[in-house]
């Protein structure tokens, strides 16, 4: 199978505009609502209540997600989270459009909108798992970007969303999506992608590992050992140790008896010398 999926033009463009210096996002100015200052509360998933009127909320969903009113937009993003938790079938048919608008929210200069959109992404991953894979590319780009930037509370939320992604989406489907970012020109993006890649590989079954290619996985791990950032190098070491364990415990036993049996060291030398 193909081990790399080409990034779209939009993805490449988004990566090329990663800020090179700190704190380039414009400062937020408060909105006045009913004579007071609007504030956004970041509600954890388990504390989100169900709707009082599901149908009404569904009818207003796409309009709210496309609103220029940032307070309404945050409220609607939280409604997407509620749908994901309580009524995911209700938005299944419009999931592609919903994800497109979530991506738009992640590009919003307001940190409140951006963080709420990131939290929404995490709940989408938990609810829909593998069903989001065909819509994932632009969302993955933004999460890698946001997890690589300097606003701590946004960065931490993006890292949690990436953990949800690697937890609830099949590693076999996700690894080809992550692989191109391991060679991205920005070292921080490479580091975040390496961490995701390393977390995903242990979820592969033996047959999936064989189908993906143990040799390719080893090559990827070794290529990251000399990367610029320590996060990349640590992720690579964890990946290689995981591959060694899998090879010694499962992979050799799953190969055909007619095939040569190599030790881990022999297998690495054989495949890394090519």
TrEMBL record:
InterPro entries: ARM-like, ARM-type_fold, CLASP_N_dom, HEAT_type_2, TOG. Residues 47-260 form the TOG domain. GO terms for molecular function: microtubule binding. GO terms for cellular component: cytoplasmic microtubule. Its main location: cytoplasm. The keyword Protease does not apply. It is found in: Cytoplasm, Cytoskeleton. This is TOG domain-containing protein. It comes from Lactuca virosa.
């Amino acid at each position: 199978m193909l081990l790399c999926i080409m990034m779209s033009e939009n993805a490449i463009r988004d990566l090329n505009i990663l800020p090179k210096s700190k704190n380039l996002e414009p400062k937020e100015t408060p909105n006045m609502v009913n004579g007071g200052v609007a504030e956004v509360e970041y509600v954890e998933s388990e504390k989100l209540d169900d709707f009082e009127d599901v149908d009404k909320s569904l009818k207003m969903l796409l309009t709210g997600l496309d609103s220029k009113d940032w307070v309404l937009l945050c409220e609607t993003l939280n409604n997407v989270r509620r749908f994901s938790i309580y009524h995911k079938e209700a938005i299944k048919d419009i999931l592609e459009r919903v994800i497109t608008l979530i991506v738009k929210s992640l590009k919003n200069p307001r940190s409140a909108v951006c963080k709420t959109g990131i939290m929404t992404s995490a709940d989408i991953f938990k609810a829909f798992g593998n069903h989001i894979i065909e819509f994932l590319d632009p969302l993955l780009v933004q999460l890698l970007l946001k997890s690589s930037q300097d606003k701590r509370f946004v960065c931490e939320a993006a890292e949690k969303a990436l953990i949800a992604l690697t937890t609830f989406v099949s590693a076999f489907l996700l690894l080809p999506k992550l692989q191109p970012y391991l060679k991205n020109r920005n070292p921080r993006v490479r580091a975040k992608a390496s961490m995701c890649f390393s977390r995903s590989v242990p979820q592969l079954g033996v047959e999936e590992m064989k189908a993906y290619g143990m040799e390719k996985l080893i090559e990827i791990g070794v290529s990251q050992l000399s990367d610029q950032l320590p996060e990349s190098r640590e992720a690579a070491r964890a990946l290689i140790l995981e591959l060694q364990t899998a090879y010694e415990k499962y992979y050799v036993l799953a190969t055909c008896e007619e095939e040569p049996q190599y030790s881990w060291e022999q297998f690495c030398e054989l495949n890394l010398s090519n």
